[in-house]
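Sample pair:
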Amino acid sequence: MAAGDSSQRSGDRRSTGACAVSGALGPGYRPRRRDTRLQSGPVALCACQSVRHPGCPCARPAALVTPAEPISNSAIRTETMKPRFYITTAISYPNGAPHIGHAYELMATDTIARFMRLDGYDVRFLTGTDEHGIKMLQTARGKGLTARELADRNTPLFEAMAKTLNASNDDFIRTTEARHHAASQAIWKRMADNGDIYKGSYSGWYSVRDEAYYAESETEIREDGKRYGPQGTPVEWVEEESYFFRLSAYEDRLLALYEANPDFIGPTERRNEVVSFVKGGLKDLSVSRTTFDWGIPVPGDPAHVMYVWVDALTNYITALGYPDTENPLWNYWPAIHIIGKDIVRFHTVYWPAFLMSAGVELPRRVFAHGFLFNRGEKMSKSVGNVIDPESIVAHYGLDPVRYFFLREVPFGQDGNYSHDAIVQRINADLANDLGNLAQRSLSMIAKNLGGVVPQPGPFRSEDETILAAADAMLEQCRAAFERQHIHIALNAIWSVVADANRYFAGQEPWALRKSDPERMGTVLYVTAEVIRQIAILVQPVMPDSAAKLLDLLAQDAADREFSALAKRLSEGTQLPAPSGVFPRYVEDEAKGEAR
């Protein structure tokens, strides 16, 4: 290619490195032959949410359900009609202050939401608080408060945490809101009208902390003489009149769902646990309580309040206007739920059964992350190792904290964190690898080229290689985010960061200033282009820091979405004076240690 022909180098993406429109249709959404979302208008669905098919074990007549709008490749890059994407965190119990476990889930979910927005989706992102149940009531009594007073005192702490973490949620729901009472009573009535709720009496083991019922076989008596459930929480014997949900009637339908939709639950080990649990046999579920009144009254029987999980799970559709399915927000359903692995059963057994009964389309996917351990120890107030999100962000900085947890801990698995590990990531990955590369290359453009992006000369094989590696990042990230594997996306990006550092060091542009200024300009152009692509792709994880990098590259707002990766950095662009983006963490300057 002639040196003067720069149209392919600095305007449009070279054909050898171009990224085709992804075939991935969003995290957890992979069209299958029987997927009703690929059809138009209402269709007849069996209870396992597949189109009627031979051999379906579902005994109940099919419901008429309007499927979600299809997400097609042709729609992904249009400005007039963006595909919709709905994602939720679990809602948190505000019986205490938020801790780093709450923050971890919120940061991860926010990252996925931001990724999808940048990739051309119309995103709806929900978080909130679960304010009913005996756990809230008992905690409040211990503090001399009413449950409502406790909720009103603590929920603002969770809202403040979302702001501290720069979460981009579109809504924050409280289950004490009037809209949620209406939605919960509506879904109860739908389940009752379907013949799935009846009155009886319950006796069995119940965990207040888990807000869960357990079979005796799931409990054990420990050395202290107390009985504990499978999550290691104390259980107590409960006997009371109760309404029941006919969960046993949904055993075959749930198994059919898991079989027909293997991606409904992630990661795989969580799916296997759920399938094993359901195959072990389902018993009807107690769904009301009479021994306390802090909850949503059962329609027509105010002596009963709803089991907190009927109430809590419904929040995901409350926020979209349920039961008003004509509400424009309803078009965002179905959702991807990001939850902790300790509440998988509620979201993948109870919730889909409730929705099947109520005739509501099922979520697209439920993905469960693991637990965080502080230097190998589970967080505990008695041990004194519970970390306040506000303090850790104040100590290390928000974007470094977001980056650390989402890079260090494979999403879906348990992970450890410590002061030393955080500092290592800050100084090695951010300050040394990405920050130093940007500072050195942009400073050379400022010093030697008047701060103007140079016109590159002919590309050599080493230039083509690093550009091809950068060009491949978008598809690698899409594939990772489709599975909620945020850590894998970051690994792919930092692999290119390492390649770019080797490229820059190997080309020695500082030595070319006098001997071959055109070649120096080419090396600096290629390096700046790779940094631009990296900065665009790390925006979901580190929005503020990425924005600073893109400011240094003089990128307009319209050039920060993933669609901008289809073109190259424009030569002749005047850049601002370079400045550092990722400062090193220096122990001597640290004010204490956030452990």
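The chain has 20 helices and 20 strands.
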